[in-house]
Design a protein that fits this description.
Blueprint (H helix, E strand, L loop, with lengths): L1 H12 L6 H5 L19 E4 L1 H5 L4 H21 L1 H10 L2 H13 L4 H19 L2 H12 L3 E9 H10 L4 E5 L1 E3 L5 E5 L7 H11 L5 E6 L5 H5 L1 E6 L8
Parallel strand pairs: 1-2, 1-6, 2-3, 6-7
Antiparallel strand pairs: 4-5
Helix pairs in contact: 1-7, 1-9, 4-6, 4-7, 5-6, 7-9
Length: 240
């Protein structure tokens, strides 16, 4: 399985590259090299995951795949009150925790990690956007530090990050009990909005400037504002 993931990662990573200007139409070739990591001088390119590198929400897709159609439909019905509450409070972290509690509570960490790897190996080709991968490859060729910054649980995204040879993964962390089983809560704040910048600065230092950042929702706005080359909804291609 590990060899299969590595092969898939190489295929995804080393496809036909395209120029950055062709991908985003921005013509920012000079500014794309200005952002620097305080630690080693490499430019940092930060990518949101769901909707940016992928065509849909990976956590929802994982839950649906794992549960199966019948259990998933029942679980969504059980989340009816949580959905109504979300319409009022718009707390994405809370409803995501509700979903984790409904579908994953009590699952051993090792089992969850294994299932996430199986899901990624089976679905990466259908989820990852080819134009986003082209820009990812372009930044890699420039020697950039590639960072995925996502609100999704990092345990689900990590196998994708490994396939893509990401340098860093910053995501929402699941909470586990003393028996190392999923509680249905999160150990960190939902990695969205200002939290994305806070987590990036915790990793790379205060006052961080990114060479580039890519996102597709209002939850990426703050991350885009600290990038020399911000890309909002620039990736639209879908896998064949």
């Amino acid at each position: 399985m590990a060899a299969r993931r590595r092969r898939l990662g190489r295929r995804l990573l080393h496809g036909n590259p395209i120029e950055m200007e062709q991908a985003n139409g921005s013509g920012r070739s000079r500014r794309e090299t200005e952002g620097r990591a305080p630690s080693d001088g490499r430019p940092i390119a930060a990518f949101d995951f769901d909707g940016t590198l992928t065509v849909r929400d990976s956590f929802t897709a994982f839950l649906r795949w794992r549960a199966g159609s019948g259990r998933y439909a029942l679980g969504m019905a059980n989340l009816g009150f949580a959905a109504l509450r979300y319409l009022i409070d718009r707390d994405r972290g809370r409803i995501k925790a509700d979903a984790a509690r409904e579908f994953l509570r009590g699952l051993a960490r090792a089992e969850l990690e294994a299932e996430a790897r199986t899901f990624a190996a089976a679905h990466a080709a259908a989820l990852l956007r080819p134009d986003a991968l082209a820009v990812w490859r372009d930044w890699k060729a420039k020697g950039a530090r590639l960072v995925i910054v996502t609100a999704s649980p990092s345990v689900v995204v990590r196998p994708f990050a490994e396939m893509l040879e990401a340098d860093e993964l910053i995501g929402t962390e699941m909470a586990y009990d003393a028996q190392d089983r999923v509680t249905g809560a999160f150990a960190t704040p939902n990695c969205r909005g200002p939290e994305k910048v806070a987590r990036l600065e915790a990793r790379f230092g205060a006052g961080l400037r990114l060479a580039a950042a890519y996102g597709d929702t209002a939850g990426d706005r703050e991350m885009l504002t600290i990038a020399d080359s911000p890309g909002y909804r620039v990736f639209t291609a879908r896998p064949d």
